[in-house]
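Meet the record:
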Amino acid sequence: MSGAPQPAPARQLALESKAWPFQEAKRLAERFAAAAPEKGYVLFETGYGPSGLPHIGTFGEVARTTMVRRAFAQISDLKTRLFAFSDDMDGLRKVPGNVPNQEMLAQHLGRPLSAVPDPFGTHESFAAHNNARLRAFLDEFGFEYEFQSATECYKSGRFDDTLRSVLAHYDEVIGVILPTLGPERRATYSPFLPVCPKTGRVLQLPVIERDTDAGTIVYEDEDGAKTEVPVTGGHCKLQWKVDWAMRWVALGVDYEMSGKDLIDSVRLSSRICRILGREPPEGFIYELFLDENGEKISKSRGNGLTVEEWLTYGAPESLAHYMFRSPRKAKRLFFDVIPRAVDDYLGVLAAYPGQDGAERLANPAWHVHGGAPPEEDVPLSFAILLNLAAVCNTEDSGVLWGFIARYAKDATPENHPILDRLVGYALAYYRDFVQPNKHYRAPDGRERGALEDLENVLGGVPENATAEDIQTELYEVGKRHDFPNLRDWFGAMYEVLLGQSQGPRMGSFVALYGVANFRDLIRAALAGEDLGLKAGAAG
C-alpha cells in the first residue's frame, strides 16, 4: 500500500479529523517530518504468538493497525508496508487446552513451535498450522500484509547483525531487564536462549562465557557439559522483551500496537531498542477484550469468541466496526454482543451517504471499508430479522424473504446483498441462541385486556400502514391500560408473543410481519395456544 497524493482539501480534512486512526497517523507522520525513512517505506507491524489458535484479539490488532495505515495514506505520500509477524521460534511452554493430541504435544514441551508436530495432522508443524489459520482469516478480511516468520528470520541470517549487536551490548541490555526480576531468576537470566543441539529444546540457562568477536556464547548444559554456540543462524533465540526490541531494530519497525498487558514490555523493549541504536516505533496501547465473566480472553484457554464464531452470526464488517469503537476501553466479547454490534455497524453505514467530508472521515464506516463503504439502503435491522426468524420458527431464508418482499417491495437477494447476508446470519443466530431459550408465558389480567384491545385496534389499521402509524397505536393502547411504564407493556408483548425478554421496535416488526399475521398471533396467545408450535404458520 502506498500513500497516493490527495487533493489539498481532502488531505486537510484528514489532518483535522479527530477520529483516532487519523490522530495516530498524524503522530506517526511527525516521525518523518525531517526526512523520509532510509529503507524507503514506513513499516507497520503486528505480532502473533502461535502457541494457540488465532483469536479475535489478533484480528483486532491487525484491523486497527490497518485503519491507522489507511489514515496515514490520506495525509502522507510515503509508501507503507505491514508485517504480520509470527513468533514461531518461541518454545512450547504448555499444552493448550483446546487442541487435540495433547499427550503428543506434551512430549515436545520446550521445543520451538516450528519444530513441534502439528496436533491436527494437517501441516508440518504446530506453528505452521496456526500460522496458516492466521493467514486464512486475515486473507478472508482482505487485509494487505506480508507474513513474517521468526524461525525464517533467525535461520536465514536476517537477524544476525542485530543479534551480534545485542551480544556487543550484553551488559547494558541485561541492565535493563535484571531490575525487573526476582533474585532467583536474576541469577540465571540471559537474553540468549540456546537451541539445544541434542534435544532441539529452547533452553533457559545462564551464559557463562561470551565472545563478542566470534559471535558466540557458552552455556552449561543440564548434564554439566559446556557448550559453545553462535548467537546467529537460528542457534539461539532471544528472551521476549529483548527479542521484541531486536526485531524493531532488524526490521526497522515504525509503528506497532499492543495490549494494555504489555505496557511494561513496551517500556523495557523501547529502552533496549535505543541501546541498539534506534528509536523505538510509535505505539498505541489498546484495552483488552474480556469474556462474559469479565476475564481476559486467552487463546490458550479458548474463552471468548473465535473469528470463525463471529462470522457465523455476524458480518465481517460488524466485527471490524466493533474493533474501531473505543479501542482504549475494555469491552466484553461473547455471543450476546453480536446482534447489537451488527446493528451498530448498519447504523453508521446508513448515516454515511448523508454526511459531508469531515463527518465521513469520522464515521467508522470509512475506516471499516477503507474509504469506500458500499451503497445499499438496508431497510431492516438485524434485531428485526432475528425476531422475524423467531416468530416464523424457520431456518429457511425464503420464508423470511417472503415477508421482506412484502415490506420492501423492490428488495431482492440480488439487489440487496447486505440484507441477504443478514438474513443468513439471523437464521443461524436464532437457531443456536434464540430458539433454545425461548419461553412463552401467559398474560396477566391487565396484559390480557391490553392485548384484546390491541387486536381490536389493529383490525382498523390498513395492511399497508407504516411502522410509525402502528407504533403510535401500540403506545396508545399501553397508555389506556395504565401501565406504570410503557416499557412494561412492550416487555409483556415480547414475553407473551415472542417468548423472550427483549425484542425489536414493535411497530417496525408488525409492519414487516403483517398486521393480519400479528392479530393472529395475539389471538393464539389469548387462546392459550403453544406459540412455539404455531409460529411459522403465518404468511
